[in-house]
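Allow me, if you will, to draw on your knowledge of protein folds for a short while. I have a record of one protein: its chain in single-letter code and its fold written as discrete structure tokens. Could you please explain, in whatever detail you think fit, how the structure tokens follow from the sequence? The record follows directly beneath this note:
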Amino acid sequence: MRPIFTEDKYFTPQDTKILTFASFTTIRTLFFYYHIIRMVMRAEKVARKGHYDYDEWAKSSFETIKIAESCGAKVSITGLENLKLSEKPVVFIGNHMSVFETFAIACMLIPYKRPAFVIKKELLDYPVFGKVMRSLSYISVERKNPKDDFKAVIEQGCKLISEGYSPVVFPQATRMREFIPERFNTIGIKLAKKASVPVIPFALKTDFWGTGKIFKDFGQIGKFSKKIFFEFLKPIVISGNGKEEHEIIINFIQGKLKEWNECK
């Protein structure tokens, strides 16, 4: 498909129409989830007919960004030119901060690669959303036994890579506003080395979509930050045991988060 973004970067247009009363957290949050749920329900109807493909996924993904912008979010996406630099599949490796990236990042990747997310198996049983996920390619893990999960990622990941897909790995496993290097494992590095493909590191800041106290997926919108960032690095070929490349990724993410947290 043609790239959704006409340039290799994207910034929220200055003339973006923002919801009236978007400065009120409760109104902003209700508006955001109302439109996200409507979007998912439309996607499920398409999936039920067997027509939810990567083009449809990219459209839904970009719609997520536009919904966020209408709630006052300022989005910055850079490094898209680096997604063109590898002709073969890659393993995308980045930090995991909120639900937002699982909805929004696809429109950045799909024009260049066919992404396959590592997801919790239970998501496939979610009403409505599960039907959409089953229409796409994915790597499912139980999140109960680390050894079983590692085996699943390597086996399923290598198979998908051989079929032309590019796995998207969040080594933190769970969503965290704070980046803790010790909890950022090397499974993405090991998958790339096993499949003999490069990695493309990415860093993101998406705490615009908060984490809920009762329902984790439904937190307040725009409470912590109204600025959303994504940045992609050039492909990196794994050499040796991958330790050096792992450190490069960690330093990149830490550096970008420090920079973005200082943005006012």
